Amino acid sequence: MSDQGHDKKVVLSLRDVKVRVEGTEIVKGVTLDVHAGERHALMGPNGSGKSTLASALMGHPSYHLSGGIYLDGQPIHDLPPHERARAGLFLGFQYPVAVPGVQVATFLRAAVNARRGHEVPIREFRKEMQAAFAALDVPAGFASRYLNDGFSGGEKKRLEILQMLMLKPRFALLDETDSGLDVDALKVVSEGIRLAATDDTGVLLITHYQRILTYVQPTHVHVFVKGRLVKSGGPELALQVEANGYDGLAEAA
Amino acid sequence: MTANASLLTLNGDYLSRYGFSDPEDYVLKAPKGLSHDVVEMISRHKNEPDWMRAFRHEALDIFLAKPMPRWGDSEMLDAIDFQDLHYYVSSTEGQGKTWDDVPDDVKRTFDRLGVPQAERKFLAGVSAQYESEVVYHSIRADLEKKGVIFTDMDSGLREHPEIVQRFFSKIIPAKDNKFAALNSAVWSGGSFVYVPPGVRVEVPLQAYFRINTRNMGQFERTLIIADEGSYVHYIEGCTAPVYSSDSLHAAVVELVAMKDAHIRYTTIQNWSTNVYNLVTKRAHAHEGAVVEWVDGNLGSKLTMKYPAVFLMGERAHGEVLSIAFAGDGQHQDAGAKMVHVARNTTSRILSKSISKGGGRSSYRGLVKVARGATGCKTSVECDALLIGAAARSDTYPTMEVAEEDTRVEHEARVSKLADEQLFYLESRGLDPDQARLTIVNGFIEPFVRELPMEYAVELNRLIELEMEGSVG
Predict the structure, then answer these.
(1) Distance between CA atoms of residues A159 and B41, nearest Å
(2) CA-CA distances (angstroms) from residue B97 to A192, B94, B152?
């Protein structure tokens, strides 16, 4: 499905990725290349296995994955989650988990240090954090709150995007980052995605709805039904899904 | 953040930092065993007044008559051999006013434990107890001038008999429980603190308790009286060598907060895992007074301890904030008691426990609102974290509320170190050890933030060691 003769390098490559959960195959073979500078949208109905795919790519221990995951050409499918993260893979969670008692700033610093492989001096870190806060319209008080603890849905999603900005991943998987957001929050989150999606990185945005795609204009759209990519195309495919639903497309598979 | 893979194992570190022992070189060491003769010997050695000697003998009879508790951890309690312990051991003739007065080996011990360093940095007074006796004592001159008394209990009895006789054993009588009776019979050392009306001791007073001898029983006795409108923060720490045979620590701590006084009592208990820690702690809070117990239990084989506040006067407030960490072979049976005697009194209990490996922690609590004590509020929150499939946590909350208009909040939670939390943190690049430690540090944060900074740092370091290699 990738263009032949593409002059940009492949950032993330999936080769026949299958995922089993408690013995049941949920993802039934996904092959996909995402080149630098591309923003791919993965659309599909509830229960199609989109979130399972995202978690399994990040290395969730309950999911058994077969096939190949290559980040910048290097295999990462045998690495534990923290090493995938350090290599530059990022997962924006659909339901970010609360970790009470751990301040956002403390956590961000640990994550940034882990990703970069060295201690970032505290002043330098603060500056970066403040810049990210400003970009996402996040109040300074966020830094001392406990990680996702008592956060509204919108605040959690903003924090996911904020982490993405600070960690500067090579490739970001964003799992329904748009769900539960009002229009203002959606605009801010979309702006964050645009900032993170540079010419050099790749994004896979998992969503139900076309709505976010008007802000984050995808370069590629894939329709994912029952564990398979059933159709791939350009931005027009999202509009087609919006108008006609998934039914006709599933049959086409 | 670096991975803690380079750290030594927990026991290795405890050995080098706290678990070392000194050669035994004693001025007086009672033979093993408990009897009226031993009680008589202790009292004669201390030149005590007759009333105290009589009190001790009576307490021994109470101890011998009382059955062993059938709750807490009967199996562990029944394993204590009371005839196999030394009830009094003294290594010095007198007490040092400077560290140079302290015998070299004992001084070296406290140096290794960092006590003189802490004294220089941030304490208003220090007491260091080695075995049965306080070997070093100091208080800042300005506090002494204001009439603040901070001394060991034996000196308190000699020098301030009128105050001691008025309050001693009035909050915790010998007959209160078996271990309070034992302490009453053979007590030695501990602190006596008196803060005059209106005086605020803004920097903490600290006592450090050290057991060195094998099969030793340490029975310190502490009495703190904060007179009207005064404030004091008292901190205690404790460690012991790692031996294969058991030692016993059975303290009694009595606090009196007069009208509008405020006492904060902080404990970081880090006994080696061969020490039984069976302690009775109780406070009386009079009108408008505040008493806070900040209680951290990391060490010991078995701890049974339930700091209590009796709210005796209107608007008094009691608080217990505790954490317990139970590793392999440890049982932390800890909790709190709040007794609302007067109207419009308030209390809060926040109890957090972490059980790891084969460790077991229990919360045992009582909130009692007496008839006539109207307008009271109480809140109890118990939070247990289990790490590993064999870890165990139990909650035994008791509420006896005689007045209908009492506002009661009660929450209890048991959580496992959640896979989803670990995955979330690992997906951000934290390795599994870092992720676990981050979750545990977050869990105890409400406790740690109540500690002076130096203790918070030390506690976080201890937790890091406890968590070392704890694959969940």
Answers:
(1) 68
(2) 64, 10, 12
Compute the distance between CA of residue B147 and CA of residue B144 in angstroms, rounded to an integer: 5
> What is the C-alpha separation between B456 and A135, in angstroms, rounded?
34
Find, among B241, B215, B181, the residue nearest to B22 by Cα.
B241
Distance CA B443, CA B106 (A): 37
Helix A122-135 and helix A104-116, axial crossing angle in degrees, nearest 10: 110
Tell which wins on pLDDT, B158 or A197.
B158
Residue B424 to residue A80, Cβ atoms within 8 A: no
Q: Does A147 touch chain B (CB under 8 A)?
A: yes
Residues of A in contact with B424 (CB under 8 A): 93, 96-97, 99
Q: Which residue of A has its CA nearest to B434?
A: A110
Which 3 state secondary structure label does DSSP give B42?
A: helix
Give the rounded percent of residues in chain B with a pLDDT score beyond 90: 64
Residue B296's contacts (CB-CB under 8 Å, 6 or more residues apart) are: B266, B267, B268, B269, B322, B323, B324, B447, B451, B459
Alpha-carbon radius of gyration of chain A = 18
What CA–CA distance (Å, rounded) separates A63 from A32?
20
Would the pTM of this model clear 0.80, i.e. be above it? yes
Q: Are B420 and B451 in contact (CB under 8 A)?
A: no
Lookup: tokens for B163: 């105050």
Partner residue facing B424 (CB), from A97, A115, A146? A97
Is A107 touching B (CB cutoff 8 A)?
Answer: yes
Q: pLDDT (tens digit, 9 = 90+) per residue, A18-31?
A: 999 999 999 999 99
Q: Give the tens place of pLDDT for each residue, B182-209.
A: 999 999 999 999 999 999 998 899 998 8
* Structure-token pair, residue B185: 């019979």
Contact predicate B448/B462, CB 8 Å: no
Q: Which amino acid makes up residue B14?
A: Y
Q: Which chain A residues touch B5 with a CB distance below 8 Å?
A: none
Report the distance separating Cα B332 and Cα A192, nearest Å: 48
Output the six-digit token pair for A187: 């605009």
Phi, psi of B461 (to 5 degrees): -70, -40
Please, what are the domains in chain A? Answer: 10-94+169-252 (3.40.50.300)
Instruction: Collect all residues with Cβ–Cβ distance below 8 Å to B144 and sequence separation of at least 6.
Output: none
The C-alpha of B85 sits at a distance from chain A's nearest C-alpha, in angstroms, of 43
Residues of B in contact with A93 (CB under 8 A): 424, 427
Q: How many CB atoms lie within 10 A of CB A121?
A: 9
The closest of B272, B291, B361 to B323, measured between CA atoms, is B361
β-sheet bridge partners, residue B282: B254, B308
Point out the residue among A81, A100, A147 whose CB comes nearest to the CB of B427.
Answer: A81
Residues of B in contact with A90 (CB under 8 A): 427
ipTM above 0.85, yes or no: yes
What residues in B contact A147, CB-CB < 8 Å? 442
Distance, C-alpha B187 to centroid of its chain: 16
A183 touches chain B (CB under 8 A): no
What are the tokens at B128?
A: 């260091």
Q: How far is A91 from chain B (nearest CA, A)?
A: 7
Nearest CB to A101; choose among B420, B432, B445: B445
Helices and strands, counts by H and E, chain A: 8, 12
